[in-house]
Design brief:
Helix content is 42%, strand content 16%. It has a 6-stranded parallel β-sheet, sandwiched between helices.
Length: 394
């Protein structure tokens, strides 16, 4: 997005330069195939992938730890009145896992999503019908810079297509009220709904699936992405300031967990990677004191796959058990932790869970939507509550 030659909003286009276009095509040639979750003939309960992970859980060493993450996820989904938060960081959308996360929402393997704004920017790119491309790291990045080709390790992206997100973003921003702030969760809920209703989308994505399913998307660093830069560019061009309110989102997240527990349910967390999404979701219990709800029982599942080591003292690598001392997890938390990359296991586990749950009623323990004034409305079971009124905050 930083290129001066990329899209119309940044400078003169070179898209009609034949040599430039021919050189770009060398890199933007073989699209990444998104990893969809499938149902249908030949798939069903007790599939081989699920049994593989169960067998690993009965072994030991790293295989046992990874298998226990899967069996913990199985138990979480099978439990009555249980809500599943997912926190996920990393370039999973360009690598092809955006479709997997969208499928997890559609199949209700998760109920709350906490992720980075960069991945939602990439999701918007895919929703607008654009692709990412299989690349390689042994490449001259100076050449890619001149050709407006972005690199995500061994994956390439077309900077023109990324910058083209400005057009739908600007159109969406025109529908928002500059007279009041929005939490990032409300912003993404409305954006996902608008993409579907406006007819702008070309494919289903995480944003559209979450809006349709009532799965809130909480975002710890909304300013750290191309989407925020486009909001800033819109403000510079129009003078309309669309404001985001992170403080209210923290209160909304606490209120969501309070509503879940007050309805007799519990919430647990599946953590993939680390970074800001992990702590943001965890502090939705740790910050319960803000709404005078120190009585919350806290998260009862802590399932994690991460490359980050514990001994650095950083949050990304800290153990789930350590999180108990910060009032994030309960004393009865089911804990399973595997130290490694999450991307291959995520697709395998999600597909195994879809197979295993084939034919079962779809889980729907909690749904979230937003009123016209930005109030978060939470439905647990059959009852919808205005949590801002219920827990007395503004």
């Amino acid at each position: 997005m930083t290129s001066s030659t990329g899209a119309h909003q940044y400078g003169a286009s070179r898209e009609h330069d034949a040599e430039y276009e021919a050189s770009r095509k060398r890199y933007l040639r073989v699209p990444v195939e998104p990893l969809e979750l499938h149902t249908g003939p030949g798939r069903g309960p007790g599939g081989p992938a699920a049994e593989t992970y169960r067998a690993m859980a009965r072994s030991s060493g790293p295989m046992r730890n990874l298998g226990e993450v899967f069996t913990g996820w199985e138990r979480l989904l099978a439990a009555e009145d249980q809500v599943a938060w997912l926190t996920i960081a990393g370039a999973y959308v360009p690598f092809g896992l955006g479709a997997t996360v969208r499928g997890m929402v559609e199949h209700r393997l998760i109920d709350v999503l906490t992720t980075t704004p960069a991945q939602l920017t990439h999701d918007l790119t895919a929703t607008m019908g654009h692709r990412f491309y299989r690349g390689y790291e042994e490449v001259d990045d100076n050449v890619l810079t001149e050709l407006d080709v972005n690199r995500y390790w061994n994956t390439f992206g077309d900077e023109h297509e990324l910058n083209a997100n400005a057009e739908p973003t600007f159109a969406f921003l025109e529908t928002l009220d500059a007279g009041r702030p929005y939490t990032s969760s409300e912003f993404f809920y409305r954006f996902g709904s608008w993409l579907t209703q406006s007819g702008t989308k070309r494919a289903e994505g995480i944003l559209t699936a979450c809006a349709a399913a009532g799965v809130p998307i909480f975002c710890p660093s909304p300013g750290d992405a191309d989407m925020a830069a486009e909001i800033a560019l819109y403000r510079k061009r129009t003078g309309r300031a669309i404001l985001l309110d992170p403080a209210k989102e923290v209160m909304d997240m606490v209120a969501l967990n309070a509503a879940i527990e007050d309805a007799g349910a519990r919430a647990g967390i599946i953590t993939l990677g680390g970074g800001a999404p992990r702590n943001y979701a965890q502090q939705a219990m740790a910050c319960a004191f803000i709404l005078e709800r120190s009585d919350l029982r806290r998260y009862n599942y802590g399932l994690r796959i991460s490359l980050d080591p514990v001994h650095t003292g950083g949050l990304s690598g800290s153990s789930v058990s350590e999180g108990k001392t910060w009032k994030k997890y309960s004393d009865d938390t089911v804990i399973a932790e595997y130290f490694g990359d999450f991307m291959a296991p995520l697709y395998q586990m999600a597909q195994a869970l879809v197979d295993e749950r084939a034919g079962q009623p779809k889980r729907d323990p909690v749904r979230v939507r937003y009123g016209d004034d930005g109030r978060m409305l939470v439905t647990v079971g059959e009852t919808e509550a205005d949590v801002q009124e219920a827990y007395d905050y503004r």
